[in-house]
Amino acid sequence: MNYTVRNLGGVREIELRGQLTFEANDDFRKIIDGIEKDGITACVLGLDSLDFIDSAGLGLLVLANNTANRANVRLTLKHPRGQVREMIEISEFHTIIPCDF
């Protein structure tokens, strides 16, 4: 997984690319740490360039959501496509984390 971070005022936009699997754990935890420490009010995870997500990747999204809730940061998923969208819909993640399809 690769990612790009943009800060727009109190909103952080993170564009994820590649695959969100257990191998992305260390990099994704850096993203999570930034949610809690950087004083943002909202975080948008852009998923349109994410090609694949597995159960470990979904677990990382749960960790991000828990961290955001603790920090009073609004977390949103944006534009999942293909297999990633299917996984979010099948697992009903859009009922836990708001998702802009």
TrEMBL record:
The region annotated as signal peptide is: none
One of this protein's Pfam families, by short name? STAS
InterPro entries per the record?
A: STAS_dom (IPR002645), STAS_dom_sf (IPR036513)
Residues of the STAS domain:
1-101
Q: What is this protein called?
A: Anti-anti-sigma factor
Q: Which organism is it from?
A: Azospirillum rugosum
